[in-house]
Specification:
With about 280 residues, the chain is α/β, with parallel strands linked by helices. It folds into two domains: about 1-175, Rossmann fold, CATH 3.40.50.620; about 190-280, Pantoate--beta-alanine Ligase, Chain: A,domain 2. About 40% of the residues lie in helices and about 20% in strands. It contains eleven helices and nine strands. The chain has helices at about 5-20, 35-45, 65-70, 75-85, 95-100, 100-105, 120-125, 125-140, 155-165, 195-220, 220-235; strands at about 1-5, 25-30, 50-55, 90, 145-150, 175, 240-250, 260-270, 270-280. The strands form two sheets. The protein has a six-stranded parallel beta sheet, with helices on both faces. Strand 2 (about 25-30), helix 2 and strand 3 (about 50-55) form a beta-alpha-beta unit. Helix 8 (about 125-140) packs across helix 9 and helix 10 (about 195-220) packs antiparallel against helix 11 (about 220-235). The longest helix has 22 residues, at about 195-220. The structure holds pantoate (PAF). Pantoate binds near residues 28, 30, 61 and 135. Pantoate binds next to strand 2 and helix 8.
Length: about 280
Amino acid sequence: MQIITTKEELCRTVRALKEQNKTIGLVPTMGALHEGHASLVRRCVSENDVAVVSVFVNPTQFNNKEDLEKYPRNINRDAELLSSLGAAFVFAPTPEEMYSAEEMAERFAFDFGGLDEVMEGKMRPGHFNGVVQVVSKLFRMVQPDKAYFGEKDYQQLAIIRRMTKVMHFDDIKIIGCPIVREASGLALSSRNERLSEAEKQTAVNISRVLRESLSYAKTHSVSDTEQWVIKSINAVSGLEVEYYEIVDRTTLMPVSDFSHAIGCVTVYCGPVRLIDNIKYPGTCD
Ligand code: PAF
């Protein structure tokens, strides 16, 4: 496995791969890799001639300086894991290599068609501009045939699908991959590293309540189910819901029935902000 740190070297490598007609898969990550990322990389390795994994803590998508500073970084451990999974290349640039000073200073403009006005977008202004900025750059540099994203960040996946369409990355297929969970049900996240063992036990209640809401939803309305989830999670000492919204899986707009619905939650467990989601079985499943 080769670690690439400059755009120039990446560009040379991609050109050579394209000349050899190799198919390229891309897994964009911010490092601190866990089994959730590993599942994306395994799939990428199995579906493409060459798997490229980017490891870049993207400063333009953080609207909280402390969150950016505290984001776990361990490139040596990440590289070891990626090598064992069969990735061919890791792209790990510095922020200065990735962005000009102007790009760092200005907010990247993109028409989200409303997808950024709900949930994470509402809570973290500018966050998705930074995500689109970095992912569109990676798409231009790596020119992948397929790009892999986890469904845990469901809103991000919906936005990347829109970006791919609007920016005409017509040759790139976006692959959404299911959430990977611990045996306890806790959704894997790099942020889990910041939870103590006791907080982890507490955080398990997030997925428990989401799962139980599937039964509750059978006999209650969308808005009653939203309120029930918020009340049930907040009843657990140490958890505080920021939002729980049941929305359409494509448009992320509020729904009045469960037929194409996903429930997305953000919960503070102590100082750590965790997200999770659950799809409600509807008529389209
Ligand atoms: O999901 C993430 O880890 C990041 O948002 C991504 C897609 C790698 C962009 O920085």
